[in-house]
């Protein structure tokens, strides 16, 4: 087999593999917004952010950013709970320990957690020095869910 | 300890109440204002009783309470207890009238059960007592020295020196009665508005709050249409009195009748915006009234202190006045009447107290204000439905307000109203369970206009548990042979019922809700989530929508040509925790702590305009946006839907597609109920800007904090096409 033909085949296989991978990847998104607040606490629970989550097989790649929190972040988690119903921690995320920064993680989900993800039953929560129970939160939906909103 | 040498408010209060009664009887110009506190002579110098060093005194409590008030209460009730768009005032005559005959212990219990709305946080019992001391101190309680306790049982007014109370008033007495005289006949010949004209309104008019008896909020006018709406321009603008406001203007024969905050009615020339007459019926507060009514030659208003006042539509002069309910017992009105079958029919609010009297819908003779009938919305022991209140004594059965005006079917001779939920908000607070459904709360009630008897009811959400009432407008629609009634409550569920029998005909969830795990498609029966069913005191429950409502007081429209119902909707969620309420006479209240957040999956869009077909209930189109909607929707024969929002935008949508065809930006948040009318062949679109508006404003205020608007600017804007 000539080298040129071999390269053509290899390149074609690589492209096919890449497109299969793209097809297999599910992209999700969470909009981070302040935890429940009141007129008394509205200036103490602040900020916003966005997290993009890509699922390949059972591997969930997490990348996001946040800003405007009232104090430095102390941690972030992936929680398990249906929309607007808080639940337990499922995974710990990496986060910059500052009022604004990045969130990231590469997680291996259980099959149950993958199902929960597809049912919108996972959410991201960011904790801070001023708000240890949580300052930002966002439920995870398919990114395409937000296309027309 | 009392200082008997001081003249006290208690000694003048009966006189004040009598004066209030006189106002209620004749109410004409020249009568003493019900808000006026008589001038008292300076008290003789009296030595303050001494207290032992280090003892807790009223003064030290008040001093401590001032700081606690500042950090926990002032954001809503104002630094000087003057009130704000977030919370009512806690000072002056209205406070004394409401609380003067009550005890500090009852006030303490009320505050402890209900405030702050977000939860008591770190506030201790002692802190609450200090806050009460501060409130009493600011209100002129200067007759006690020893500290308050949770059992302090003296009458508050007994210890308010009139001299101190007088200092609370730093403004001149407000106007009353007719303040601007004029006659609409100087502008147009007057033709009485008959029952037949109300039944079949001229396309030119918007003669009642939702334009027709069926509450369609639809104008057949089509001069302004999809093709030319982009050319709309401002014709005139008129600044209104400041205060909380959600007004629905009336337009009849070229005259705009406008309800302002503080119970002020104005008549304006619809072509030019010129003021013709203005009448202050009092009380001159900053409180909200959503609508007024017109019949024959009278404008009929409900007042915020639960009176009905009829004015001559030509001149604004008072024709008659009557009392709907006793305001000193907490009863009030925030919506006006509908005139059906020649009867003035009006609801009632402020029914959360544990008192013998209940809420009702009542009807009056339009000619003279004579009471014709009352329908009580709370079933008492021994009555049909009286066994649905968990065996509670009648006095502890509260709620069932009718704070949004009903609609009317002249063929069936029935008036259709929504009722609010039981009070307090959570079953455990009201010493009940989720099985105690509490008739006739949170229902549609069909009442015979002839005698006030209940024809049928359908309870949409029994034993309501999250402050999500089903009180809003009932839209009557005929589809083929079916005569139907549609409504959307705070759960955001569009309900369809047969309006002859009340039979359930279908539902549609218009926004995300997770309070119910099941809604029976055959019967409409709802099943609450288990944790909501079993919520205990001080347990936080998270649910959607929030108490700002999937839908709230902003009315929806029915567009007959397309068969679409277009509703202004809202997308927020809440955490709710029940508080303890003692079963004591005079107590009661709402009794829940609440926090608010964005609705998951909405991308932070609080506002949604949703269009649903009346037959299938399927969503045909929707538009979502960050800013919450603050007007009702109206539709027109020109194929348009109009709605306004918190971010000062007033928009026109294509009724068929939801495309935005025109928008403009006004002075402050666009709030109220748009109308359309025509004069001399020219079509106008009018809308108000306003402040206040209760939870639909409070909740976006803590979620969409980046949306700003001036804290004043109540006005009516009138648009038309260029000549």
What does this molecule look like?
The complex is a heterodimer of chains A (149) and B (723). Chain A is an alpha+beta fold. Chain A has helices spanning 3-24, 111-118, and strands at 26-34, 48-56, 59-67, 73-80, 89-95, 101-108, 122-128, 136-142. Helices cover 20% and strands 43% of the residues of chain A. Chain A has an eight-stranded antiparallel β-barrel with strand order 1-2-3-6-5-4-7-8. In chain A, a hairpin with an 8-residue loop joins strand 4 (73-80) and strand 5 (89-95). Chain B has 723 residues and is of the alpha+beta class. Chain B has a domain at 9-167: Cytochrome Bc1 Complex, Chain D, domain 2. In chain B, the strands form eleven sheets. A five-stranded antiparallel β-sheet of chain B has the order 1-7-6-5-4, with no helix packed on it. A five-stranded mixed β-sheet of chain B has the order 2-35-36-37-38, with no helix packed on it. In chain B, helix 2 (58-72) crosses helix 6 (125-138) and helix 5 packs across helix 6 (125-138). Mean pLDDT of chain B is 90; it is low at 1-50. Chains A and B meet through strand 1 and strand 8 of A and strand 31, strand 32 and helix 10 of B.
Task: Give the C-alpha Rg of chain B.
Answer: 25 Å
Q: Give the radius of gyration of chain A.
A: 19 Å
Might you state the CATH topology name of chain A? Immunoglobulin-like
Reading side by side through the largest sheet of chain B, how are the strands ordered? Answer: 1-7-6-5-4
Question: Order of strands side by side in the largest beta sheet of chain A?
Answer: 1-2-3-6-5-4-7-8
In the CATH hierarchy, what is the superfamily of one domain in chain B? Cytochrome c-like domain
What structural class do you assign from the helix and strand content of chain A?
alpha+beta
DSSP E strands of chain A, number: 8
């Amino acid at each position: 087999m000539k080298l040129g033909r071999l390269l053509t085949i290899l390149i074609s296989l690589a492209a096919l593999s890449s497109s299969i991978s793209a097809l297999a990847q599910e992209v999700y998104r969470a909009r981070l917004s302040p935890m429940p607040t009141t007129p008394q606490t509205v200036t103490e629970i602040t900020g916003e952010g966005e997290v993009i989550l890509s699922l390949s097989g059972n591997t969930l790649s997490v990348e996001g950013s946040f800003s405007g929190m009232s104090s430095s972040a102390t941690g972030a988690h992936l929680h398990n709970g249906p929309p607007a119903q808080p639940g337990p921690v499922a995974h710990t995320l990496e986060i910059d320990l500052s009022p604004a920064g990045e969130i990231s993680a590469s997680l291996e989900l259980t099959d149950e957690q993958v199902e929960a993800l597809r049912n919108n039953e996972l959410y991201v929560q960011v904790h801070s020095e001023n708000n240890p129970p949580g300052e930002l939160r966002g439920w995870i939906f398919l990114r395409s869910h937000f296309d027309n909103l | 300890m009392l200082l008997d040498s001081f003249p006290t408010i208690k000694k003048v209060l009966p006189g004040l109440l009598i004066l209030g009664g006189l106002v209620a009887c004749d109410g004409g110009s020249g009568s003493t204002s019900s808000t006026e506190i008589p001038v008292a002579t300076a008290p003789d110098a009296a030595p303050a009783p001494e207290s032992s060093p280090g003892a807790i005194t009223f003064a030290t409590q008040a001093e401590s309470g001032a700081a606690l008030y500042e950090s926990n209460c002032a954001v809503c009730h104002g630094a000087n207890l003057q009130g704000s768009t977030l919370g009512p005032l806690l000072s002056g005559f209205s406070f004394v009238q409401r609380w003067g005959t009550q005890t500090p212990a009852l006030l303490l219990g009320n505050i402890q059960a209900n405030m702050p709305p977000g939860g008591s946080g770190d506030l201790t019992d002692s802190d609450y007592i200090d806050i009460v001391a501060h409130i009493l101190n600011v209100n002129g309680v200067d007759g006690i020295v020893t500290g308050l306790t949770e059992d302090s049982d003296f009458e508050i007014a007994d210890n308010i020196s009139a001299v101190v109370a007088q200092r609370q008033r730093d403004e001149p007495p407000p106007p009353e009665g007719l303040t601007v005289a004029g006659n609409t006949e100087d502008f147009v010949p007057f033709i009485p508005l008959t029952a037949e004209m109300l039944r079949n309104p001229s396309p030119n008019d918007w003669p009642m709050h939702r334009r027709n008896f069926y509450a369609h909020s639809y104008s057949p006018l089509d001069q302004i249409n999809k093709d030319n709406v982009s050319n709309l321009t401002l014709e005139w603008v008129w600044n209104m009195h400041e205060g909380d406001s959600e007004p629905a203007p009336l337009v009849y024969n070229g005259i705009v009748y406008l309800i302002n905050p503080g119970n002020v009615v104005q008549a304006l020339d619809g072509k030019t915006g010129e003021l013709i007459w203005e009448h202050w019926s009092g009380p001159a507060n900053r409180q909200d009234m959503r609508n007024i009514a017109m019949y024959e030659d009278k404008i009929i208003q409900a007042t915020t202190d639960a009176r009905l006042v009829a004015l001559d539509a030509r001149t604004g002069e008072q024709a008659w006045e009557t009392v709907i309910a006793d305001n000193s017992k907490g009863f009030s009105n925030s919506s006006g009447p509908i005139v059906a079958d020649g009867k003035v029919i009006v609801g009632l609010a402020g029914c959360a107290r544990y008192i013998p009297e209940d809420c009702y819908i009542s009807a009056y003779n339009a000619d003279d204000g004579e009471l014709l009938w009352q329908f009580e919305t709370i079933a008492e022991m021994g009555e049909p439905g009286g066994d649905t209140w968990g065996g509670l004594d009648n006095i502890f059965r509260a709620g069932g307000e009718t704070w949004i005006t009903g609609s009317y079917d002249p063929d069936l001779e029935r008036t259709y109203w929504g009722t609010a939920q039981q009070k307090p908000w959570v079953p455990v607070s009201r010493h009940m369970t989720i099985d105690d459904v509490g008739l006739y709360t949170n229902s549609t009630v069909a009442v015979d206009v002839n005698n006030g008897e209940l024809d049928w009811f359908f309870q949409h959400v029994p034993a309501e548990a999250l402050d999500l009432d089903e009180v809003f407008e009932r839209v009557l629609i005929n589809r083929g042979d079916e005569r139907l009634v549609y409504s959307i409550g705070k759960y955001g569920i569009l309900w369809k019922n047969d309006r002859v029998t009340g039979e359930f005909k279908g539902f549609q969830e218009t926004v995300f809700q997770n309070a119910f795990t099941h809604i029976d498609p055959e019967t409409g029966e709802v099943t609450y989530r288990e944790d909501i069913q079993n919520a205990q005191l001080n347990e936080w429950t998270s649910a959607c929508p929030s108490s700002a409502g999937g839908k709230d007081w902003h009315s929806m429209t029915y567009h007959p040509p397309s068969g679409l119902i277009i509703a202004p909707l809202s997308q927020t969620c809440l955490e709710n925790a029940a508080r303890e309420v003692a079963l004591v006479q005079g107590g009661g209240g709402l009794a829940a702590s609440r926090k608010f957040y964005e609705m998951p999956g909405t991308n932070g869009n609080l506002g949604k305009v949703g269009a649903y077909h009346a037959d299938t209930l399927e969503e045909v189109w929707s538009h979502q946006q960050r800013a919450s909607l603050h007007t009702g929707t109206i539709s027109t024969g020109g194929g348009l839907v109009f709605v306004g929002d918190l971010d000062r935008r007033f928009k026109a949508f294509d009724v068929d597609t939801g495309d935005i065809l025109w928008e403009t930006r006004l002075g402050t948040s666009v709030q109220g109920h748009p109308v359309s009318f025509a004069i001399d062949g020219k079509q106008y679109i009018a809308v108000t800007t306003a402040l206040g508006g209760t939870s639909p404003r409070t909740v976006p205020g803590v979620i969409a904090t980046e949306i700003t608007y001036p804290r004043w600017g109540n006005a009516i804007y009138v648009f038309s096409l260029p000549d």
